[in-house]
Design a protein that fits this description.
This protein is mainly β. It is built from 3 helices and 10 strands, in the order αααββββββββββ.
Length: about 180
């Protein structure tokens, strides 16, 4: 059964792209998925460009995307998806490959704030890559800063690289006595 093909449908591109974002860079927690309001995506931008021939779409200018407790602000948000084979059964949401937010990126998720020049989310690996001088992730009073921060959503693991602009810096406030 064929559900949808981007290559052969042009009149419903915007609503379908909004469905694509249901697999946003930072999916809602399991408790939120039972609530239809938590699944709802709200995106606003100054401009929207759809390029179905090249399997991408972009929201440009003062982009704000919200789903549940997750909020993304950026200058641009570009969505890449696979074209799908003729007669394939993948839904548009299943064809989402990657999201790229650029310019003044701020992502609020899971009691964290991520700030970077660029953020790339690869859906298959559930991996968020923050890049740019001074990229940082803050959780409460704890902060880590570097030029490239890779966050693995499945296990909560971070990899931080200092890059050419400096070293990795971390501020950690332990709950107990720490190193003393």
């Amino acid at each position: 059964m064929k559900i949808f093909s981007f290559r052969h449908t042009t009149g419903v591109v915007l609503p379908i792209l909004l469905c694509l974002v249901l697999l946003s860079p930072l999916p809602p927690r399991a408790a939120e998925t039972a609530n239809p309001e938590a699944k709802k995506i709200q995106i606003s931008a100054d401009r929207f460009i759809s390029d179905t021939a090249n399997n991408n779409a972009e929201f440009i200018g003062n982009v704000r995307a919200k789903q549940g407790e997750t909020l993304i602000n950026a200058d641009s948000l570009k969505i890449f998806f696979s074209g799908g084979a003729e007669g394939g059964s993948a839904s548009p949401a299943q064809s989402l490959q990657k999201l790229v937010a650029t310019g003044n990126v701020e992502i609020k998720f899971d009691n964290r704030l991520a700030v970077a020049r660029q953020a790339v989310y690869i859906t298959a690996q559930r991996m968020l890559i923050l890049t740019g001088p001074g990229a940082r992730v803050t959780s409460g009073d704890n902060t880590v800063t570097g030029e490239t921060i890779t966050f693995y959503r499945d296990d909560g693991r971070f990899t931080v690289e200092g890059g050419s602009s400096g070293r990795v810096n971390a501020i950690i406030l332990p709950e107990d006595s720490g190193l003393e």
